[in-house]
Design brief:
- The chain has a single domain, classed as monomeric porin ompg (Porin), CATH 2.40.160.40.
- The protein has two helices and 13 strands, in the order H-E-E-E-E-E-E-E-E-E-E-E-E-H-E.
- Strand 7 and strand 8 form a beta hairpin.
- The protein is globular, with a radius of gyration of 40 Å.
- The chain starts with a helix and ends with a strand.
- The mean pLDDT is about 85.
Length: about 270
């Protein structure tokens, strides 16, 4: 009886825990690669499908703008004048072609002067551009008719405290070197009323009497304009402007019967296209 109980217990243990139940699972046996598994990866495209389109990098978007900064009547101490200053550009975010022009015409006569610059501009930092190109000057009147070309290189950008700055070096066709510095800033009195002071300095290394240019500091131009932006594109303004010539440049101006020092009341409109 006792032997039978032991045999029954052994039989139950064998059924509950078969041999090898606690053994580690055997690793799967990898089959040898077949002919289909030796195909290149990725598999070739179906020749019946149309070819994929060529992928090209997105070109730099091109756009442009034109700002007529000054289009004004100047009530001078001498002859009143019509003055303008404008700048247009076309290109992308990094490279642009710029066209600048400024000048004046006497309203009581036929005298005047104009300047045109055509420049290539390259962005070199988030707020500064390097520019290079050509400048053309022409002065006309009853007793004066002269013009000349320059090569130009300079920088333009936004200085600290939001001062728009421009510094340019010029070399004339005769090798005469001159320079110009301009700076201006907008002060918002309100969202539409804006006060804009500006300064311009012109200097020259050699004296060029034929064009009324002396050596050293030639002249300074200070302006203060208050504009009201009816829209961003149309803003009438009023202001004052003062110009003064120095040194030899002042002497040449006196010989030609021009003013050395001048105050002017100005009124005009600023346009944005």
């Amino acid at each position: 009886m006792r032997v039978s109980a032991i045999a029954i217990a052994i039989s139950i243990s064998l059924v509950s825990f078969p041999p090898g139940a606690n053994a580690e699972p055997e690793s799967p046996v990898l089959s040898a690669p077949t002919a289909q598994q030796n195909l290149p990866y990725p598999p070739p495209l179906d020749p019946t499908l149309p070819p994929l389109p060529e992928i090209h990098p997105h070109p730099e978007p091109m756009y442009g703008a034109l700002t007529v900064e000054q289009l004004e009547y100047r009530l001078n101490e001498g002859h009143d004048t019509f003055n303008w200053e404008a700048e247009g550009w076309y290109g992308g975010d990094y490279r642009r072609l710029r066209l600048k022009t400024e000048g004046e015409v006497e309203l009581s006569g036929d005298g005047g002067e104009l300047e045109v610059q055509l420049l290539y501009s390259q962005l070199v930092s988030p707020f500064w551009e390097v520019q290079g190109g050509l400048r053309y000057d022409r002065e006309f009147g009853q007793n004066v008719e002269r013009d000349r070309f320059f090569g130009a290189i300079g920088i333009q950008g936004l200085a600290p405290y939001f001062v728009e700055t421009e510094a340019t070096l010029f070399v004339s066709e005769a090798g005469d070197v001159s320079a110009r510095f301009k700076a201006e800033r907008d002060f918002l009195i309100s969202q539409r009323l804006i006060l804009q002071p500006e300064i311009e300095l012109n200097l020259a290394a050699p004296s060029v009497e034929n064009f009324g240019v002396g050596s050293g500091l030639n002249d300074v131009d200070l302006g203060l304009r208050l504009r009201y932006e009816i829209t961003r594109e149309f803003a009438p303004y009023v202001g004052v402007n003062w110009t003064h010539k120095f040194g030899q440049t002042a002497d040449f101006a006196r010989r030609e019967g021009k003013q050395v020092d001048n105050w002017a009341v100005v009124g005009g409109v600023r346009l944005l296209f």
